[in-house]
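If you are new to this repository, start here. Below is one unmodified record pulled from the training split, so you can see the exact layout before writing a loader.
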Amino acid sequence: MHDRRVPEARLAALAAHLKAHRLDVELNGRGLLVRDPGTSAESGLITCRRRTDDGGDLWFFTADGEPLAPADRVTDAVVGVKARLAQGAAR
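And here is the target side for that same chain:
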């Protein structure tokens, strides 16, 4: 069983949820890239790391380094990623 406190395990959980939303996911050693096959929009690289200003808890971050959601709130992260994809498709 994976340790849910490990960033890679949290990214894998996010990837599984996003895949269930019919998005294309690519998980590698650097992070998670998400594509919307309907629009070809990309999320940019999503990473998971400790957020020092939140007591060192794990968070998902965007490619720009912006906090996306706490790593234990996968549904919130999915909403954030889908919003970013929608913004990218609108450009």
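Two things worth knowing about this chain: The first strand starts at residue 24 and ends at 27. The chain has a mean pLDDT of 91.
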